[in-house]
Structures are given as structure tokens and as C-alpha cells.
Design a protein that fits this description.
Helix content is about 0%, strand content about 60%. By secondary structure, the chain is mainly β. The chain has a single domain, classed as Jelly Rolls (Sandwich).
Length: about 160
């Protein structure tokens, strides 16, 4: 079994479960300029993307958050295909927060130009997924999201 929910840039779900995030339009908070076309982040098509979201920080801190409200508690696997970069290339972390509990750092980038990254996470039980982008130093940060997958794990 592959260690990613994407194979060749395409959501790879096999018989694991169904993508319950598909069709739920995420919300964006905390950004200077939030990503536009958020519906592209959950449309099931990794070739489409949101517009670029950006935030300028005077020091390390939150770039912005993307939230998906699943409406009900589910056992899920989360994967994110996105691009994250900054003008100067300091570290960018992607944290997963499930129902207000920090689950972990699921990806990072040091890129100073657009750079795709796939972030994967293990099994969580949640009804809300928050993806928090964190910048490591003073800089302007840019994020584009290609796809967010939340596979319902069916025992």
C-alpha cells in the first residue's frame, strides 16, 4: 500500500473509503489576502487549484488557516496537495488541528518559488479539520491549494 493518498498527482483512494471533504467549500481565516476559489480545494481534481493566498509577517507566526466543517464526527485520513513558498525561503509548516486539538506538523517547505508538496497524516477522529500554515520568520508567504482529501475510514 502506498504511503500517500495521491498517486501521480491524483487522489488515490482505492478501497480505503470515501473522500467526505469533496464538495465542502472550505473557509479561510487569518490571511492578509485569503486564497480565492476555495471550492477548487475540495473538487476532487488535483489539476485545479485555489488562487494564491498570502500574508506578510513581521516575525514567525500564523500565515492563515483553512477549515473544513464535516458536520459530524468521522474517522478520517487527511492528505493535502498544495504549494507553499515565500520571498526569502524561511521554513513554512503545515499543522493539522482536529476539533481544536493540535494533531501535528504534517508538512513543511523551504521554497522561495512555487513548490508543490504533498502532506499526509494518520488517522484522526474529528468533525472539523483546520489546516494552519505557519511561517518561520519575517517574510511574505504564499499558499496555493490543489486538493484536500479527508477519507472516511470504514472499519
Amino acid at each position: 500500500m502506498t504511503n500517500t493518498l495521491f498517486k501521480d498527482g491524483v487522489p488515490y483512494v482505492g478501497a480505503i473509503g470515501q473522500n467526505i471533504a469533496r464538495g465542502i467549500v472550505p473557509t479561510a481565516t487569518g490571511w492578509d489576502t485569503p486564497p480565492s476559489n476555495l471550492e477548487n480545494a475540495t473538487d476532487g481534481d488535483p489539476t485545479t487549484a485555489t488562487g494564491v493566498g498570502s500574508t506578510t509577517l513581521g516575525g514567525g507566526g500564523y500565515i492563515g488557516t483553512i477549515e473544513i466543517d464535516l458536520q459530524t464526527y468521522k474517522n478520517i485520513l487527511v492528505s493535502v496537495l498544495c504549494s507553499a513558498w515565500s520571498d526569502g525561503g524561511p521554513r513554512i509548516d503545515l499543522h493539522l488541528v482536529a476539533d481544536s486539538y493540535y494533531w501535528g506538523d504534517i508538512g513543511y517547505s523551504y521554497a522561495s518559488s512555487e513548490n508543490r508538496m504533498t502532506c499526509n497524516v494518520g488517522w484522526v477522529y474529528a468533525n472539523k479539520i483546520n489546516l494552519q500554515y505557519i511561517g518561520g520568520a519575517a517574510d511574505t508567504y504564499y499558499i496555493k491549494i490543489y486538493e484536500i482529501v479527508a477519507l472516511e475510514v470504514i472499519p
